[in-house]
Amino acid sequence: MKFNTKVIHSGIKPDEATGAVITPIYQTSTYVQAAPGDHKGFAYARTHNLTRKTLEDSIATLENGFDAVSFSSGLAAMDAVLKLLKSGDEVLSTNDIYGGSYRLMTKIYNKFDIKTTFVDMQNPANIEKYITKKTKLIWIETPTNPMLNIIDIKAVCAIAKKHGILTCVDNTFASPYLQVPIDLGADLVLHSATKYLGGHSDVVHGCVVARTEALTKDLRFIQNAAGAIPGPQDCFLVLRGMKTLHLRVERACENAKRIAKMLKRHPKVKNVYYPGFKDHKNHKIAKEQMRHFGAMVSFDLEDDTFEAASKVLSKTRFFILAESLGGVESLIGHPATMTHASIPRKERLKVGLTDSLIRLSVGIEDAEDLMEDLEKALLEL
What we know:
By secondary structure, the protein is α/β, with parallel strands linked by helices. The chain is 35% helix and 15% strand. The longest helix is centred in the last third of the chain and has 21 residues, at 245-265.
């Protein structure tokens, strides 16, 4: 089954009770039992919900995994992955990473003696020198947030496998339409389904796809024991959004390519970060492991100040100044004060995240309107 068909039909079955084509919202907290332990596979909604199960089946099929496990947010999903570890274990993580992920690793899990070392993974060989006997997880984010570096998933997973280390790829920026990390060797794949999977900025959701049955069982235990589950309506909304994933991402990628080229020519723009450029450091890897180059574009200004960035951020019309990404509408954001504010400035600057860096989540509007919008905003400088 090809992806465009999978995204419509994978894991989806007509409702047995009514024949409804769309999976119903099973809005219930509990289920009747004929006798203690004698039920139809559902006893309590924290543990099982048919709307949630349908979504999990669908996502697992798209990511070519054994199964998927849903959570109330992307960070709740990440929290579940980190709970696979024990005190004394260590994590190697991409050094250019979402601020919320950095915060969870350094402010929460560090207290439980699960320490993270942040490493530049653009050269996979660089990872070897950081691996110790305590290293139990390699956390890969690619494309990275917000510098849009690309990490060779296959190469990093091969290194991890050699050392018996678990790998998890945050696939939020790409979505399964652009890359399938399990096919490249990953053990786990994480999504903030709030973003491209949901696609309409109306739901918060997270999921982890597991390569094996054993990992699935461990994650399901954590899901049930910790209880950070999504509600059935949230699952319904992600299922609804996923049916147009391929169409939305394809269009957004086309728009992003045009916008990146326009920004690269602009005299008031210093650098444009977009893996579709042939001079991008990781362009070759991106071309090999991704279907397209994504719909995220970051850029910084010749006037490398927060004040300059603020002038641009406050003057766009179609690019909405807001957190998040991956919706049908285009968003513009300032990582240093928004998505990455929890990372110390010194650490941000090490990866090139300047005070003037602006991140775009390009939507599916008309590209001409979006480019004109940015052009007008840049005139404020």
